[in-house]
Amino acid sequence: MKTDVSDIALTAIAPVVWGSTYIVATEFLHGFSPLTVALLRALPAGLLLLLIVRRLPRGIWWFRAFALGALNISIFLSMLFVAAYRLPGGVAATVAAVQPLIVVFIAALLLKAPIRPVSLVAAIVGIIGVALLVLTPQAALDEIGIAAGLAGAVSMAFGNVLARKWKSPESLLTSTAWQLTAGGLLLVPVALAFEPAVPFPTVPNLLALAWLSLIGAALTYVLWFRGIARLESAAVSALLFLSPLTAVLLGWVFLGQSLSVLQIVGVLLVIGSIWLSQRVSART
User: Fold this and answer.
1) Which of 53, 125, 161, 281 could form a disulfide bond with 174, CB atoms 3.0-4.6 angstroms apart?
2) What is the pLDDT of residues 28-48, one digit of tens each?
3) Is the dihedral of CA 20, 24, 27, 30 positive or negative?
4) How many degrees, rounded to 5, is the angle at CA 271 between CA 146 and CA 265?
5) Beta strands of 36-85 (E only): which ranges?
6) 74 compared with 141, residue with greater pLDDT
7) How far is CA 165 from the centre of its chain?
């Protein structure tokens, strides 16, 4: 599959925006629980898109919409925010950085995609680069946060590969609306049963939720699923290394966090990993 630069650029917008999740959640959503934030991120975005497309799933796509919604939205976002609230800085994104490596093997299993040594090397280099970026001596590691990050990575890895395997008969906007809505609906009973009441939102809270839902979900998931449909699984997942890179750079710009020499080396390794993954995809 030949790779188009515009497809890479548009798909890359999603993980760049997702990299802002950590700073937005920790700085502007104090008092909100992880599952509640996940619900408020997914469901409004899904319902908005569903209102635009005005189409519901049919037949087997009821099951597939909820299965993909659970993997790509419900489980992934819940685990993402658990990790974001329990781990400092971009450490949560570091744990999620194993996803490109997981995708290589899941794609081989479900899509019969060849396991290319170069793709494995690119994924490992990316993980090392992200580790150098955020695993500083000051980084506090929380077992639950790490477990949540790993669970989210595995869930989205399966969801991304299955989204490629189950090609929706509807438009990209419609299939995204189904997944976001289904994922949000699955979170409703869990949040009501186990999460505390939502605090009365302030203006900064509302702006943060609007960013996470309208831009960080409605827009970015459309771009992400577009990339999944057009690019190789390994090439798409490699772009996720942009998320922790963005998280660290935002901390540097807005929170005054310094960058060491090792972190700069990590930045270069992440960029090199993404370049290598896209180069392999472009040659096939």
Assistant:
1) 53
2) 998 899 999 999 999 999 999
3) negative
4) 75
5) none
6) 74
7) 19
Dihedral angle sign, alpha carbons of residues 254, 255, 256, 260: negative
Note the pLDDT of residue 237.
80
Are 94 and 131 a contacting pair, CB within 8 Å? yes
Closest CA to 96 of 162, 183, 160, 172: 160
In contact, 229 and 172? CB cutoff 8 Å: yes
Q: How many alpha carbons lie under 13 Å from residue 56 in its C-beta half-sphere?
A: 3
CA distance linking residue 227 with residue 185, whole number of Å: 25
Per-residue pLDDT reduced to its tens digit, 126-175 = 778 777 766 666 655 677 888 888 899 899 999 999 998 998 889 999 99
Short-list 99, 157, 90, CA closest to 130: 90
CA angle 201, 207, 210 (to 5 degrees): 100
Mean pLDDT, the chain, whole residue set: 85
Q: For 39, how many CA atoms within 13 A lie in the half-sphere containing its CB?
A: 17
The CA dihedral of 133, 129, 218, 281, to the nearest 10 degrees, is 170
pLDDT in tens, 234-266: 778 888 878 878 887 887 788 776 667 777 787
Q: What tokens appear for 171 in the block? A: 């438009």
